[in-house]
Amino acid sequence: TLWVLTEDRLLSYAVDASGTMTPRGQFELPAIGRRLTLRDSLAFVAAGSGGLYALDIRNPEPVEVGNWSGARFVYDVTTSGNLLYVAAGPEGLYVLRFEGTSFTPVGLSRGQGFVASVESGGDAVFALDRAGGTLRRITPVDVR
User: Strand pairing of 134-138 and 93-99?
Assistant: First the structure.
């Protein structure tokens, strides 16, 4: 399954051996989709003023299972271990846990600047401070 995020929806396509793509399903976003992150059978969509969406993608037709609107604007999201790192612009970097259908805030780092983008890789999370033009390396802590 190929997942495609546009401004107003998350689309799924089946891709066969010849490369032919067939539309399978979609989820209409109530706000502009900015970034898609996949983890297991879940898609997390940063949706700007619409917050953060968790979608079950086990089937071609995505189903909303959770929404978090604790930040004024969600620019980006990435996962590391069992945590989500949410770029929230001038508010900083939120750390959330998602279990079942609910998001639980674990922390907020306001000292990261205007966090416009986040990415995880290896043993670190990287946060881009748009205002200062600085890329920060953060070592995740496993919080149970």
Answer: unpaired
